[in-house]
Amino acid sequence: MSTPTTLSQRELRNNSAQVLRDVEAGQSFIITNHGRPVGRLVPIQELGLPIAVPANPIRPATEIVGHKVDRSSAEILDELRADRF
């Protein structure tokens, strides 16, 4: 485990992409808020957790079959709006 570096909430917000690259490379951070430690950001391997894998395989969307309409959208809207007046 690497020695954690202290990082303020503001630094984390402003440099989040770089911080995540550093974590991915093995660096650990202690996150502070107004100088008070509030959390740790560590690589997932240090926690002994498996990297998340989707429970269901990704599959393409199914084909959407449309209904044939013999009227235009404007005609349908006019009909729907006629009920209001």
UniProtKB/TrEMBL annotation:
Gene3D superfamilies for this protein: YefM-like domain
SUPFAM superfamilies listed in its UniProt record: YefM-like
InterPro entries listed in its UniProt record: Antitoxin_Phd/YefM, YefM-like_sf
Protein family (similarity comment): Belongs to the phD/YefM antitoxin family.
Protein task: Antitoxin component of a type II toxin-antitoxin (TA) system.
Protein name: Antitoxin
